[in-house]
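Duplicate of earlier report; O-Antigen ligase input re-posted below.
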Amino acid sequence: MPAEHPVDFEPSLIAPNLYSSRRASLRVDVAAICSVVIILLYCIPAPLIVPQMTFAGRPALLLSLGLFAWWFIARLSPSLLMVGRQPLRWVALIYLMSILLSYVAGLVRGLPTLEANRQDFTVLMTFEFLGLMLMVADGIPNWRRLRMVLKILVCAAAFMAFLGILQSIFAYDVTQWLVVPGLELKGTLTDFQARGEGGRFRVASTTVHSIEFSAVLAMVMPYAIHFARYARSKAARRFYGLLTFVIAGAVPMAISRTGILALGVSMAIMFALAWNWRFRYNFLILAAGLTGVLVVGRPGLLGTLRSMFLWADADPSVDGRTEDYAHVSAWFAQRPWLGRGPGTLIPDLYMILDNQWLLTLVTGGIVGVVALAALHLTSLWLAVVGFRRSTSEEDRHLGAALISTQILAILVALTFDSLGFTTFSFTLALLTGVSGAVWRLTHPARTVRTSTVRRLLE
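Output:
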């Protein structure tokens, strides 16, 4: 396979009749900043925030807010202008407008202090989310830098997975050694929640909850397999193969139906779209081997997971989800179009609604649900277009991974309030931006294909 992608050698149009290399060595570019965001997001425990702030004050999220400012300046400055089209910009605007309209609707109905503060928090989170998404979509200059960002993502996820495995084996919270001086601990680092018989418990690693932990790993899994297949050297492929096993082995440790279903969905999509029969056969053999390791190394774990599905109708968490429908119906009838206001359904005041689609319906109304669906479906369309345009097996495999990301995100939003968990939601923002970047880098028009945010520092 070629060491470099041929598109990377094309010059970038930065002004009329003026071109620049997209392979210049830079001190700081979008890919470098996004890599730092990933490391901060996965390697610093989620409850650690900048003092006197909410969870929007996680270091990774504040850096994402800086990315939004950078993107906005790039849209206004002729010297930083992005000359090509990007569908994600329009759907981001629609999503932002839906949040702001719901925000105004919340102010109009009158809010207690806690709800008003939560609205402000949600709007700030939205700018951070869009900042990461848009800068990845518009600012990754070439395939080489895109691969680098995704490699950092896989390595960071494997680190998080390894911590989760250690938590599960030793019943010890290793994340306490990752406390960064100067950051404030909001809540507790981890909570080993009992699940099943035999003293089994759920782990969350550096995330807030075990469901989030397993869903994030399931989302990253296709990208780990991607580099296990297409890394440039044999040693690198073995390295990413090892990381793939670590990530896959950590998902059952969370003891989460959502995680198992998410992993199954992502692997089924890759199985159908991206793999030939030889790789499918090898994958099934390796999956059987990993299952055997779990049976020997963690006796009873697979039985606990099996019972979670077989006896789901007797699970109080499932009953609780179905009982929420009556409350959702009443709230929706009161404010069907713009909802109660973003973030105003506070668990401590009302209830925990373990369904992002229903939560969006209550807080953002029909307009909010349509905007969120538009964001997912547009990203899915961009991934499909990139998949169909790709001429190499490697690029098509990456396109299939991006397709799996959006389908997985749509489905797991039915099982927990996914956008309220920042590690999951910002991983989604990153990979949604990658869909936009792949759409741009595979575009037939060179002015679109080579468009990017110009460098911040030489």
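The first strand starts at residue 12 and ends at 15.

Merging into the original ticket.
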